[in-house]
Each structure stands twice: as C-alpha cells, then as structure tokens.
Amino acid sequence: MACSDESGSKSPPPSYSNMDEIPLYDEIIPPPPTIKTPATPPPAYNEPNIPQGIPLNTCTGGPNPYPILNQPTQIAAVTQQQQVFVQQSVNPVAPQVIVVQPQQSTTLDDTPASIVCRYCHQSIVTHVEYKPGVISWLMCVVISFLGGICGCCVIPFFVRGFLDAHHSCPLCKRHIGIYTRK
C-alpha cells in the first residue's frame, strides 16, 4: 500500500531504518495562538460610556427623553413597636378516633371462616356442618360400578373431602353459605 504526501504523489511507506528522520508527535510544536486585539480600546472607568454617533441632549428647556430618577435627599427612619399577646386555650375534649376497616370478601371453603355475619352484623367464626353433595353421590356410584363390595360404596359419605361444607352463624343460627366440591 502506498502513502500520498501533500502534493498528491504516491510513495511507499518509510522503512524502519528511516524512523529517525520522521518526527515524533511530542516533537511537533504547535504554533502559538494568535491574540486579536480590538481596534479601539475599551473606555476607562472614569469616562462616561457614550456610544459614538448619538448626540448628547443639550436642551435644558424640554423634557429629558432619558429621565433620571432623583434619589430622596432625606431618609427618615420609621420604627413601629407592636406587642403581641398569645393566649392558649386548652379544650378538655378528647379527640374522636374513627377506625375504618376495609370490607374483606372472604370466600368460604371447607374450614370455619372468620367473617362478619350479614344478618346480625357481628364478627364471628362460622359453624361448619358437613353434608353429602353431588360429589359424594357421584363417587358412590363410581365405586359401585367398579365392584364395590361389602358396602365400600358408602365410604364417600364419611370422608370430609367428598362432603359439602354448610356455613352458619353461631350467634343468630342463620345460614350463611355453602362450599360445594367441584
């Protein structure tokens, strides 16, 4: 691969023996930065800064188009004293405490549940009575067809896993709900 110099002519890259002739990056000295000086020097602090080309208002009879606000010559200090009386009153009324509990949608299952009775509005643990349902009768028929002998077909009526759970309130004795097996 060939290298091109500033004139655009292509020459082969330098060999390793000519490495002493090639300047290293740290030997290249950048030119000093040029400092541009303004054509006109800035005004001195004691000279008024008047833009060139704008004439001064020399009219004394007319209103000044650039009004200067006058500062007051006398400053009067006004002090005011005010007495503040703070009276605290203590009310012997106890604060009212309101406890709000969110409604819990408790689903009934085959064990007693802690709920609020919808009839007597008391917080209770339900009374559960287990009664045979559709699943117990279905299991009885299946066991009979499979040759259930010696009364084995009545086993589902004694196993709690095949019975429906009927929930009732222990206080008002009203029926709350039924958990049916699926």
Automatic annotation (TrEMBL):
Disordered: region residues: 1-42
Coiled-coil ranges per UniProt: none
Compositional bias annotation for Pro residues: 29-42
UniProtKB keywords: Membrane, Metal-binding, Transmembrane, Transmembrane helix, Zinc
High-level lineage: Eukaryota, Metazoa, Chordata, Craniata, Vertebrata
KW Ribosomal protein (keyword) present: no
PANTHER family for this protein: LIPOPOLYSACCHARIDE-INDUCED TUMOR NECROSIS FACTOR-ALPHA FACTOR, LIPOPOLYSACCHARIDE-INDUCED TUMOR NECROSIS FACTOR-ALPHA FACTOR HOMOLOG
Stretches assigned to the LITAF domain: 95-181
TM region(s), chain numbering: 134-159
Subcellular location: Endosome membrane; Late endosome membrane; Lysosome membrane
Name assigned to this protein: Lipopolysaccharide-induced tumor necrosis factor-alpha factor homolog isoform X1
GO MF entry, a single one: zinc ion binding
Alphabetical list of InterPro entries matching this protein: LITAF, LITAF_fam
UniProt superkingdom: Eukaryota
Keyword hit for Membrane: yes
Predominant cellular place of this UniProt entry's protein: membrane
Protein family according to the UniProt entry: Belongs to the CDIP1/LITAF family.
GO cellular component: cytoplasmic side of late endosome membrane; cytoplasmic side of lysosomal membrane; nucleus
Entry membrane topology: Peripheral membrane protein
